# Entry
Amino acid sequence: MAEIQLGVIESRFADMIWEHEPITSHELVKMTEEEFKWARTTTHNVIRKLCDKGIFVNNKGTVTSLISREQFYSLQSRQFVDDAFDGSLPAFIAAFTKGGRLSAKEAAQIRKMIEDAQEE
# Structure
């Protein structure tokens, strides 16, 4: 899938959709008016932009996701490691843990994730 970039407000809006989907565009207008002080047209423009990016679909006024929140953030994480660490997960982990310590619980969770993802 192509790289998808979202700004901070777009990310918050996308999270709002994921949290409440399926949700009507009318309900989103009410929510964004309260949360972001947006006009109806702004909400509809952002819905259209997120649909154009392939994250959501607006079918007859009902907005649902094409990819889950977890899939989206997984893609974002992979893209960050690719861009910032030349795709090296060990380099990312080394930078992440430099100057800090992992708790025994965190280390155990990471070991389990590695074991689950490891090629046989």
